[in-house]
Amino acid sequence: MRALNLTIEEFAALAKERLRAEPPALGDVIARPRGDHEMQSQPMAQPDEKAAVPAAVLIPVVSRAEGPTVLLTQRAAALRSHSSQVAFPGGRVDAVDGSPLITALRETEEEIGLPRERVRTLGFLDAYLTGTGYRIVPVVALVEPPFSLTLNAHEVDEAFEAPLSFLLDPANHRRDGREWQGLHRTYYAMPFGDRYIWGATAGMIRNLYERLAG
After folding, report:
1. Are 48 and 35 in contact (CB under 8 A)?
2. Looking at residue 84, which CATH number applies to its domain?
3. What is the distance in angstroms between the CA of the first residue and the CA of the last residue of the chain?
4. Residue 127 pLDDT > 80, yes or no?
5. Does residue 128 form part of some domain?
6. In a domain, 204, yes or no
7. Above 90 in pLDDT, residue 38?
8. In the predicted model, what is the mean pLDDT of residues 87-103?
9. How confident is the model at residue 82 (pLDDT cuts 50, 70, 90)?
10. Is residue 74 part of a domain?
């Protein structure tokens, strides 16, 4: 599988061509949700999509002179779940949101203070089902500098950027595993410096790579 080393213009054009134009519908029988259940050596049933908690995340691709980057967060160490993990900004869909896009933009503003006026949506990935009971809709978007961030200390310890070329290189997509609920579970991991990008975040990056690479 080939690495994708794209300019911001090439990425935007390819994303517009190959991503979903609308959020994936619940129960879509043509494009089934993705998730870690797909890659287990020990059989694992697909989580119940209809019973999952709806959520959305923003995959913010930043236009930088040295090449596009992806904006990620380090979740707060004090959080009760997924503490200190690398994540995309996002969260649960509220009834008042009306769409995963609104959720992703709202949560991004709340978590890191990125104004939605700096965000241009390109499209959507297939829904991602997690073993912890969430159905996540990833929203892929461009972010145009300049911008400043204001981190919500209750939710985020840090925000950082990783080169898009690093994340879209399958040579950096390794498979790690560990024991979970008495079974060995496998997941994608993409170590980046002293950051460990893994689990659903790495899985969604892998799905973005596969969709763009065709």
Report:
1. no
2. 3.90.79.10
3. 10
4. yes
5. yes
6. yes
7. no
8. 95
9. low
10. yes
